[in-house]
Design a protein that fits this description.
Distance between the termini: 122 Å
Helix content: 55-70%
Number of helices: 1
Strand content: under 5%
Strand order of the largest sheet: 1-2
Structural class: mainly alpha
Shape: rod-shaped
Oligomer: single chain
Length: about 140
Protein backbone atom coordinates (compact mmCIF):
# COMPACT_ATOMS: atom_id res chain seq x y z
CA UNK A 1 0.00 0.00 0.00
CA UNK A 2 2.86 2.29 0.74
CA UNK A 3 4.22 1.80 -2.76
CA UNK A 4 0.82 2.60 -4.20
CA UNK A 5 0.62 5.77 -2.09
CA UNK A 6 4.11 6.86 -3.15
CA UNK A 7 3.29 6.12 -6.78
CA UNK A 8 0.09 8.19 -6.53
CA UNK A 9 2.03 11.01 -4.87
CA UNK A 10 4.62 10.91 -7.67
CA UNK A 11 1.89 10.97 -10.32
CA UNK A 12 0.15 13.85 -8.51
CA UNK A 13 3.41 15.79 -8.26
CA UNK A 14 4.14 15.16 -11.95
CA UNK A 15 0.66 16.28 -13.01
CA UNK A 16 0.91 19.35 -10.77
CA UNK A 17 4.31 20.28 -12.25
CA UNK A 18 3.00 19.69 -15.77
CA UNK A 19 -0.04 21.91 -15.16
CA UNK A 20 2.15 24.60 -13.55
CA UNK A 21 4.41 24.66 -16.61
CA UNK A 22 1.41 24.79 -18.94
CA UNK A 23 -0.13 27.67 -16.97
CA UNK A 24 3.19 29.59 -17.16
CA UNK A 25 3.32 29.01 -20.93
CA UNK A 26 -0.30 30.08 -21.34
CA UNK A 27 0.33 33.19 -19.21
CA UNK A 28 3.39 34.14 -21.31
CA UNK A 29 1.39 33.63 -24.50
CA UNK A 30 -1.50 35.77 -23.21
CA UNK A 31 0.92 38.55 -22.18
CA UNK A 32 2.62 38.41 -25.60
CA UNK A 33 -0.76 38.53 -27.37
CA UNK A 34 -1.88 41.46 -25.22
CA UNK A 35 1.29 43.42 -26.02
CA UNK A 36 0.97 42.63 -29.72
CA UNK A 37 -2.68 43.66 -29.77
CA UNK A 38 -1.85 46.95 -27.96
CA UNK A 39 0.86 47.71 -30.55
CA UNK A 40 -1.51 46.82 -33.37
CA UNK A 41 -4.28 48.98 -31.93
CA UNK A 42 -1.88 51.91 -31.52
CA UNK A 43 -0.64 51.55 -35.10
CA UNK A 44 -4.21 51.36 -36.39
CA UNK A 45 -5.20 54.42 -34.37
CA UNK A 46 -2.22 56.42 -35.67
CA UNK A 47 -2.89 55.33 -39.24
CA UNK A 48 -6.59 56.09 -38.92
CA UNK A 49 -5.96 59.51 -37.35
CA UNK A 50 -3.44 60.42 -40.05
CA UNK A 51 -5.79 59.29 -42.81
CA UNK A 52 -8.76 61.16 -41.32
CA UNK A 53 -6.68 64.33 -40.95
CA UNK A 54 -5.48 64.04 -44.55
CA UNK A 55 -9.01 63.52 -45.86
CA UNK A 56 -10.36 66.43 -43.80
CA UNK A 57 -7.58 68.65 -45.15
CA UNK A 58 -8.42 67.58 -48.71
CA UNK A 59 -12.07 68.40 -48.08
CA UNK A 60 -11.72 71.70 -46.18
CA UNK A 61 -8.69 73.30 -47.88
CA UNK A 62 -10.56 74.26 -51.07
CA UNK A 63 -13.46 75.57 -48.99
CA UNK A 64 -11.13 77.68 -46.85
CA UNK A 65 -9.31 79.00 -49.94
CA UNK A 66 -12.62 79.94 -51.54
CA UNK A 67 -13.81 81.58 -48.32
CA UNK A 68 -10.60 83.58 -47.91
CA UNK A 69 -10.75 84.66 -51.56
CA UNK A 70 -14.37 85.70 -51.07
CA UNK A 71 -13.48 87.59 -47.88
CA UNK A 72 -10.73 89.51 -49.71
CA UNK A 73 -13.11 90.31 -52.57
CA UNK A 74 -15.72 91.56 -50.09
CA UNK A 75 -13.12 93.68 -48.28
CA UNK A 76 -12.00 95.23 -51.57
CA UNK A 77 -15.58 95.84 -52.69
CA UNK A 78 -16.65 97.44 -49.41
CA UNK A 79 -13.50 99.48 -48.88
CA UNK A 80 -15.00 102.76 -50.21
CA UNK A 81 -18.04 102.38 -47.95
CA UNK A 82 -15.94 101.45 -44.90
CA UNK A 83 -13.59 104.38 -45.51
CA UNK A 84 -16.59 106.69 -45.75
CA UNK A 85 -18.40 105.50 -42.62
CA UNK A 86 -15.71 104.36 -40.14
CA UNK A 87 -13.78 107.66 -39.84
CA UNK A 88 -16.95 109.46 -38.79
CA UNK A 89 -17.64 106.76 -36.20
CA UNK A 90 -14.07 107.06 -34.85
CA UNK A 91 -14.17 110.90 -34.61
CA UNK A 92 -11.83 111.46 -37.56
CA UNK A 93 -14.08 113.62 -39.74
CA UNK A 94 -11.17 114.86 -41.90
CA UNK A 95 -10.62 111.23 -42.98
CA UNK A 96 -14.15 110.50 -44.21
CA UNK A 97 -13.91 109.04 -47.72
CA UNK A 98 -10.08 109.13 -47.83
CA UNK A 99 -8.35 106.26 -49.59
CA UNK A 100 -5.47 106.41 -47.07
CA UNK A 101 -7.69 105.77 -44.05
CA UNK A 102 -6.59 102.62 -42.19
CA UNK A 103 -8.53 102.79 -38.92
CA UNK A 104 -7.15 99.67 -37.22
CA UNK A 105 -6.06 99.47 -33.59
CA UNK A 106 -2.77 97.83 -32.65
CA UNK A 107 -2.24 97.08 -28.95
CA UNK A 108 -5.02 99.52 -28.19
CA UNK A 109 -3.53 102.36 -30.29
CA UNK A 110 -5.49 103.47 -33.36
CA UNK A 111 -3.49 103.86 -36.59
CA UNK A 112 -5.57 106.28 -38.64
CA UNK A 113 -3.34 106.41 -41.73
CA UNK A 114 0.32 106.24 -42.77
CA UNK A 115 0.76 110.00 -43.18
CA UNK A 116 -1.06 110.97 -39.99
CA UNK A 117 -0.97 108.01 -37.59
CA UNK A 118 -3.20 109.75 -35.02
CA UNK A 119 -5.45 111.48 -37.57
CA UNK A 120 -5.56 115.03 -38.90
CA UNK A 121 -6.54 117.64 -36.34
CA UNK A 122 -7.96 120.20 -38.77
CA UNK A 123 -11.08 120.12 -40.93
CA UNK A 124 -9.36 119.33 -44.24
CA UNK A 125 -6.36 116.98 -44.47
CA UNK A 126 -3.74 118.03 -47.08
CA UNK A 127 -3.14 114.36 -48.05
CA UNK A 128 -6.82 113.48 -48.50
CA UNK A 129 -7.66 111.50 -51.68
CA UNK A 130 -11.08 110.13 -52.51
CA UNK A 131 -11.75 106.45 -52.11
CA UNK A 132 -14.45 106.66 -54.72
CA UNK A 133 -12.08 107.83 -57.50
CA UNK A 134 -10.34 104.45 -57.60
CA UNK A 135 -13.62 102.79 -58.67
CA UNK A 136 -13.74 104.70 -61.96
Amino acid sequence: MREFSEMMQAITDGVEQFLTEISKDVEETVVALAEASEEFAEQMQNTFATEVERRLDEFFDPILEAYLGFEIAIDEATQPVVHTIEPALNNHSACVGCRHYHGQAYNGVMLVCGMHPYGWEGEKCPDWQSTWEELS
